[in-house]
């Protein structure tokens, strides 16, 4: 089971350690630093490292390394999932998961870690339960606490802990009862030089924000549930009901949570909302090259594509770029060689383009590889897979809740090869 | 107001100041002080000096303060055991608190204090908490048993906590069940032999019920526990699978992978014609693919596991190739794994796509990745024959890019393609030759030289090309030197007229100027070959090469099956069984897949069969050559490896024209000067070891008289197959010791030395008891007889046939492998005589289906003679009966591994055919025991 946890920042300082069994010396992290040095990039540090007496399983999140030490055979996914859960909890409690936030709340962090794991076994990881045990810091509360001398640790057993619905606490009360669902779809795609799709799939999630009093029992149905054939559910969903009727039936946790995540991979369903015309070329034996890209709308279902950003990792020999955008603004970082072009909305009448010259290191050979373009965009009020919520019903409570569903489509890992 | 204020140190008096604050009367101040102490602790500062002051704060009704003090206690109790005792009373009191949260907290904290004195006091509160009315306390107490076991295992057993823990598996609360399972699993891991998790259909049912209701982490523990269960038949396996399948839709990837493990394991028991089987296969693909959209660390672990799964059951993901396509911003560790799986899934149907992708990757920035991509193209060519042509043209395109490392990798893989499809793509050689100058890596140079040598007859300027390499011969790596030597010899054999000078040059470089024994030896072999029998040389050097196998990096089937049982664990990430790397794994139990119960094995259709051998097949492969070689080299060899004194005592042999004779005809009578031969070993042909052989002979003779029957020596390794070394031998057993009697003959023209022997794992653990002692180098045409003592304590692996023994023999020339069958009677031990009563009882006890009957024909002996003859080989007659004129002999024998074999031999006077009935708990040995009977009786 998980033995210890070290939090390490990008400059290699261990700024927090927590041991759930006996104390493991910090020096075990030297093996991690060694691996980190070997990897060219922070993102490339291998997640599982073996040392003579321990295994180090780590994740990299928000510029921090969460390095756990284990000694016996343990499922690595279990450890990685748990570490991500820890990071999520920090995010949830402190609004951000950063070194500063963790240091500012070090005692709460320690209390949380103690509550989340006992002897290496996960104890309470549901944010609903944790928040009953340890209250998140708010400016108001710390003022009140210092006046009244009360503490931010709950002294009753969280109600959800042992019931059959451990994710929900009892006695929830709201004056305005609301249930909101966000259907968020991300398109992962690889488009080749000629513009045809090499690979495309949709990663979708339905995030919920439920503020309903009492013990509401919800059912959510879809116009076209057939789209969902590869789905992962929040534990609250009754699997049998889904299997037999294709209805999501559940008693929701209180607050924000991810209801389902799903994947649509069948190619003909994945519409590609933008196209890119590109011409990037480097001349042989000359220290410059041409750069020209234009973006236009493709299958956008009549909605506006907005928030478009293009990022390009230019080859190492590129010294500088001298470009003119017809729309938006661009930056080029000569150190990391990253070109970012912030476009905004596409107006079909005048397609945005970025043109100009690339300055190369003189004397260096012409770069072999052509850079890939990474594209970000957003489309409001559209789920690109066509998924539509049919209706939401509530049982078990008398009041009438306010309901809302929002759709949004985004680019995930959307890459265009040139 | 943030906690960072706790870090602001007040220079030197920090500890002192904290002490004062801790002892303050004001609650708030106390709490703040404890917080400061904890903050210092988190960054690794030593605040243990404050122990008594902090413990004083423990008796409080403020839960937060209590928790903080507990946190501190857990960290420092070990360094202050006497002080820690002060806290015991409060703990015991807290365990009685009406608030379950406090009861649980107390028992939880006590378990974390690793101080013997405290654990003594822990037992009573723990016992109460395990039976607490509140499930939250019970589940915390369950984990506490595991903690306590870690500190003092004996105490836990003596106090009967293990039984209480087992009872908790039937608890009404699923969380308690999950924690009990987790605790038991952890305890069981340190005691593999204990039967803690003794699962039966009832407890399985309880686990499956709890599975639906407990937290995600609990589900992982329960699933991992289920995976260790062995269902009694396929119906039970199916019903478990049905109840586990919904877990595949869980949001937690660890739950998904643990469920995959259970399904992959139990699927093994399901018949393949079952509809359910194919439904299950279909259900497995989406969750595996979904894992790939998670965070990169999760992807990595998932990919390592998918790598195993596609080797075991390629049909699951065969349509999902595209999800493994690499994105340019994937971390490198994900890219490399994806690439590996792409190759495994490559087939005729998707090869075009795969190749297009690979070509794309070959222009990426990351050098390691590009190299692997280029290699992957070569692997595709070898794997999918139809694609070979396209692969070759892709590789040629890549060579045109002139990117140095791409060209080099491409040449290395093209060499492999030539090995797989000879005489098909040689037209590309010209292009390859153009890039000769840019090659600077040994592997690529060696590959290119191999190509030039192999196709010397088609390359006009082959001699010039090779000559150009020869200039810097001594600066090349061994790999290149060896390849160059062979290539030039090939060239010479193909175009003898133009290249004699070149071959002489390389031979002298290899034999005279090199310090590398391998190179020197190879040089001598070629030299002698060419000088004595050029026709044979041609046969040897230009022999047709075996085609290289399809996929070289598949995991060996038995290991793969074991790894499938470890899906989701560290073992699956490292692709090694836990015994190979988990520290302190005492006698780890090897897991194995359950046998298939249905009768469908034969009905297996070829396309659904995994590419690896089906799981039921017995592994009879010699481990990868490298392994065996590694073992051999690890042996502490008697004589140190040192070649004969080559340069110190040269014997003048210049008169003999080493390359003369038959070569003339080959060269059309060209004038060919003999190379300087002043470096032949001094002791060539010295009559050594002869007397030694006699001695052994004598020993052998004596042995035959007193011991069991010894078969005449048979040739095990013909000289042709072992570069001139002929090995014949037999096995014998005398007075309790087994030996392998070997006759080594040197039929080569070179002295052999540095002999060593090694056995592959075998059914009875036969292994050499001493190193192979060949006291002097073996000169040409010399024979030496050696008796190698054997024991049966080596590692065991079931072989097919059972008595198969695979042997590797090494000498200064090379390593040779052969396999032989040993007669089983060398394993019959001297104390194989069973008591009469025992015999009767055992005979009845062994089920009838284990009985095997054989006929021994043409054996003209009577019962007395038979019995005494068999006794010589440790088959003992226990009783004799005469039934209706027939003699019934009841006999017993015992094998070295303790297996008893009981026999009933029916001898009819005047009839040369005997009937032999054998009964044994391990019926597979019967056949071999019968053969032993036959050999003994007939000789």
UniProtKB/TrEMBL annotation, chain A:
Bilayer topology annotation: Peripheral membrane protein
Localisation per UniProt entry: Golgi apparatus; Cytoplasmic vesicle membrane
Pfam family membership, one: Adap_comp_sub
Gene Ontology molecular function, alphabetical: small GTPase binding
InterPro entries recorded: Adaptor_comp_med_subunit, AP2_Mu_C_sf, AP_mu_sigma_su, Clathrin_mu, Clathrin_mu_CS, Longin-like_dom_sf, MHD
Claim: Transport is one of the keywords in the record: yes
Domain of life: Eukaryota
A Gene Ontology cellular-component term: axon cytoplasm
Gene3D superfamilies noted in UniProt: 3.30.450.60, Mu homology domain, subdomain B
GO biological process, one term: postsynaptic neurotransmitter receptor internalization
Record keywords: Cytoplasmic vesicle, Golgi apparatus, Membrane, Protein transport, Transport
Chain ranges of the MHD domain: 176-417
Function: Part of the AP-3 complex, an adaptor-related complex which is not clathrin-associated. The complex is associated with the Golgi region as well as more peripheral structures. It facilitates the budding of vesicles from the Golgi membrane and may be directly involved in trafficking to lysosomes.
Similarity annotation: Belongs to the adaptor complexes medium subunit family.
Name of the protein described by the UniProt record: AP-3 complex subunit mu-1
The organism of origin for this protein: Sarcophilus harrisii
Taxonomic lineage of the native organism: Eukaryota, Metazoa, Chordata, Craniata, Vertebrata
